[in-house]
Specification:
- With 415 residues, the protein is α+β, with helices and mostly antiparallel strands.
- Helix content is 45%, strand content 20%.
- It has two domains: 5-222 and 368-404, Ribosomal Protein S5, domain 2; 229-363, 2-Layer Sandwich (Alpha-Beta Plaits), CATH 3.30.70.890.
- It has 15 helices and twelve strands.
- Strands 1, 2, 3, 4, 5, 6, 7 and 12 form an eight-stranded mixed beta sheet that branches. It has a four-stranded antiparallel beta sheet with strand order 9-10-8-11.
- Bound molecules: adenosine-5'-diphosphate, (3R)-3-hydroxy-3-methyl-5-(phosphonooxy)pentanoic acid and magnesium ion (MG).
- (3R)-3-hydroxy-3-methyl-5-(phosphonooxy)pentanoic acid is lined by residues 14, 18-19, 21-22, 140-142, 144, 192-193, 195-196, 240, 244, 327-328.
Length: 415
């Protein structure tokens, strides 16, 4: 395996079914292929360390060969056991290596990295992993899954589980990345449903339902319609792990009340998938209604935020469309599905009021597009200097996109 290597994975928007997905209800989501995370793997100067450089969250950490070597046995056993649960033994063994990381953002990112690294690459050292993302972090657009997918793909190649000599990722490569990025999501979020890593792995749109035996009913939707929507980032910070944990506790405390709410959310996702597969001017209003219903139920579970209600209330008042939170809620992003009667100037006024009065940012983006992808060292020749520049600290989104964005930049991505 030669270095450097670059991997990438997109963010996602959940259209219907966040939170209820964790309770094995159906969910439907699409990738946002223009908002992505990127991982660069290079050789370290000191071949006795592995280095993690996550400039977006200001984390740079190194571990020595002997620290990694002691994990070998429990990592081998974790790698060969069930991929639905994290290994407690490996978790305990990793604790001393994470002891200096007090910020939960740092802790969970490094835990995800070390867990995947020891399982997939063993005790190898001499590698540096640098991650840069154009996705807002902790905003409901799946940044955690997109970094897990980048790591799983790169480590799959480095560990010899995935070949980097083909011109396409095979179904078994994608299944490998999906399985291991789910483990990475577990390290960050505790009890994820698996929808975020599935969308970041496969791209396009995915409808998904975890079954009681933990197998997944899964459909890739290649011809997902372009629905007119506005994503608004409140920039209110929150953690998916905490929000999902709160809903799980509520469901344990009040099962008779929460179960019908969660199952109604599942019916919304099923109905939404049906409408999206035959979208027309006639059934479009039903989609708007489903968005309203889904948001109302999420509010009842306690995962909205006054800052998100501002967006919902303004879109209702101005008759722009129907608004729901997307992702874990508690802050982060809302999506507004635009009413076909709303004019361009009304939509502009809606966005600028949210910007002026609350400092919110509207993200205009299409849905769907490429899932995980990589550029092999062979194809990176001639680009080493520009890579060093974009993976440095404080680069702008525009600078990153100009070099790394698939379908537009200079690199030839395998996907
Ligand atoms: N670019 C990044 N660099 C380092 N860590 C990241 C990055 N993006 C996401 N993470 C990790 O994922 C966590 C955020 O995930 P989460 O709370 O699920 O929010 P979301 O997935 O909606 O962005 C962060 O706390 C961090 O651990
Ligand atoms: C709340 C949930 O449905 C989505 C979380 O997405 P995000 O981390 O907020 O982007 C959890 C999950 O499905 O794993
Ligand atoms: Mg997440």
């Amino acid at each position: 395996m030669s270095l450097p290597i670059v991997t990438s994975a997109p963010g996602k928007v959940i259209i219907f079914g966040e939170h209820s997905a964790v309770f094995k209800e159906p969910v439907i989501a699409a990738s946002v292929s223009s908002l992505r995370s990127y991982l660069l793997v290079t050789a370290t100067d000191d071949e006795n360390v592995i280095e993690l450089d996550f400039p977006d969250i200001k984390l740079d950490n190194k571990w020595k060969r002997q620290d990694i070597a002691v994990l070998k046995e429990c990592a081998v056993s974790a790698a060969s056991s069930s991929h639905n649960e994290l290994s407690q033994e490996l978790g305990v063994a990793l604790e001393p290596l994470l002891a200096n990381l007090n910020d939960p953002l740092h802790y969970h990112a490094a835990y995800c990295f070390l867990y995947l690294y020891t399982c997939l690459c063993g005790a190898k050292t001499g590698l540096k992993f640098t991650v840069k993302s154009t996705l807002p972090i902790g905003a409901g657009l799946g940044s955690s899954a997109s970094i897990s997918v980048c790591l799983a793909l790169a480590m799959g190649i480095l560990g010899g589980h995935i070949s980097d000599s083909g011109d396409k990722l095979s179904n078994s490569d994608l299944s490998f990345v999906n399985t291991w990025s789910f483990i990475g999501e577990k390290c960050i979020n505790g009890t994820p449903s698996g929808i975020d890593n599935a969308v970041a792995t496969y791209g396009n749109a995915v409808s998904f339902q975890r079954q009681d035996d933990n197998t997944i009913k899964f459909e890739r939707i290649l011809d997902f319609p372009q629905i007119p929507l506005i994503l608004t980032n409140t920039k209110i910070p929150r953690s998916t792990k905490t929000l999902v944990g709160n809903v799980v506790k509520l469901a344990e405390r009040e099962p008779l009340i929460t179960k019908p709410i969660l199952s109604a959310m599942g019916h919304i996702a099923t109905r939404g998938a049906e409408i999206l597969s035959s979208l027309s001017d006639e059934n479009y209003p039903v989609l708007l209604e489903l968005v309203r219903l889904n948001h109302g139920l999420l509010v009842s579970l306690g995962v909205s935020h006054p800052g998100l209600e501002v967006i919902r209330s303004l879109s209702d008042t101005m008759k722009i469309g129907s608004t729901k939170l997307t992702g874990a809620g508690g802050g982060g992003c809302a999506l507004t599905l635009i009413d076909k009667n709303a004019s361009d100037s009304e939509i502009d006024e809606f966005k600028s009021q949210l910007q002026k009065d609350h400092g919110y940012v509207s993200l205009s983006t299409g849905l769907g597009g490429m899932g995980c992808s990589y550029v092999s060292s062979e194809k990176l020749k001639g680009h080493v200097a520009s890579l060093a520049t974009v993976f440095a600290r404080d680069t702008t989104v525009e600078e990153i996109d100009s070099v790394l964005l698939p379908n537009g930049g200079p690199l030839s991505w395998v996907h």
